[in-house]
Amino acid sequence: MPVPKKRHSNIRQGKRRFSNYRLKETSLSKCPNCGAANLSHQACPACGQFKGRQVLKLKVKKEKGKKE
Predict the structure, then answer these.
(1) What would you report as the CA-atom Rg of the chain, rounded to the nearest whole angstrom?
(2) Is residue 29 within 8 Å of residue 38, measured between CB atoms?
(3) Residue 40 lies in a domain
(4) 10 falls within a domain
């Protein structure tokens, strides 16, 4: 098996290794129930549903200033 004649420097090695190292844009999908944007394969943070089932119990926010 061939062996390189000279060692590559750390900078040259890093240029090759990290040339494709960057952040990727997150892919968001729409919730079929409420239409809010959420990550795929995750429960919807707005309505708490996943694959048509209610999986999260969400608290209802009370409005300030209203007396009942």
Answers:
(1) 25
(2) yes
(3) yes
(4) no
Domain presence at residue 19: no
Cα–Cα distance, 46 to 44 (Å, whole number): 5
Model confidence pLDDT, tens digit, residues 18-68: 888 888 888 999 999 999 999 999 999 899 999 989 998 888 777 777 665
The span from the CA of 39 to the CA of 57, in Å, is: 18
E strand intervals along the chain = 28-30, 37-39, 49-50, 53-54
Collapsed DSSP state (helix, strand, coil) of residue 61: coil
What is the C-alpha to C-alpha distance for residues 30 and 50, in angstroms, rounded to an integer? 12
Q: What is the pTM of this model?
A: 0.53
